[in-house]
Amino acid sequence: MASDQSANLEEKQVNGDADGGIQPRNCDKAEEEEEDQRILFQSAVLAQQEQKASSSGPPGETKLEILLANSVPIVNPGEYVWLALSDNELEKIPRNATLFEFKEKLSARQNEEEGTTIVLKKERAEKHGFTKFDYVSAWISLEVQSSLEAVGLTAVFAKALADAGVSANVVAGYFHDHIFVDVKDREKAETALVALSAKYKEKLAGNKK
Questions:
Q1: pLDDT tens readout for residues 131-174
Q2: At what angle do helices 186-208 and 153-163 cross, to 10 degrees?
Q3: 62 backbone dihedrals φ, ψ, rounded to 5°
């Protein structure tokens, strides 16, 4: 009997007082600190998410003079061809062989598609059985990371190329602008773009004096 009473007393001391009341549970100090850190971390994450949500527009530079000063042309190796393919023809070419593709329609009011335009290396097109090309181009990328919302960049470098007698097909990527010129005009286009970038670098340097 004495052992039973002792066991009951120990149980009361663990779960409550001798009168059966519930004692409040005291959190360990280390657990409290861990909980505080968790709350702080969650607050920081939420703040970052709110900041990201409040910022509008895609990444990249938008100031025209800075864009032009840093528009150093990078000539990618190889020759690139443009093809307009039906769905059946498109299946012959693996997706990883193309630079990009674009579905074209006769007009905005018609659902009938003219075909899919794709651009890829000439040697890859030939590997997949295509040998007739209307346009063989060089691919030039502008080093500067330009915003998709930047205004005026295309107009300025297109004029510089036009003044040099170069026809250009421009494609805006998420991070950079890409220019396709006739392969015979590769060097002429590069020279014009280098001169344009140098002109605006000098202009920016003058403004800082």
A1: 999 999 999 999 999 888 889 999 999 999 999 999 999 999 99
A2: 130
A3: -120, -20
CB atoms within 10 A of CB 207: 8
The CA distance from 72 to 140, in Å, is 10
The residue type found at 40 is: L
Residues 84, 114: contact at Cβ < 8 Å? yes
| Closest-CA residue to 207 (of 66, 35, 41) | 66
What span, in angstroms and rounded, lies between the C-alpha atoms of 148 and 144? Answer: 12
State the sign of the Cα–Cα–Cα–Cα dihedral 94, 79, 158, 147.
Answer: positive
- Encoded tokens for 127: 């590997």
148 with 61: CB under 8 angstroms? Answer: no
d(CA 190, CA 205): 23
Q: Are 101 and 126 in contact (CB under 8 A)?
A: no
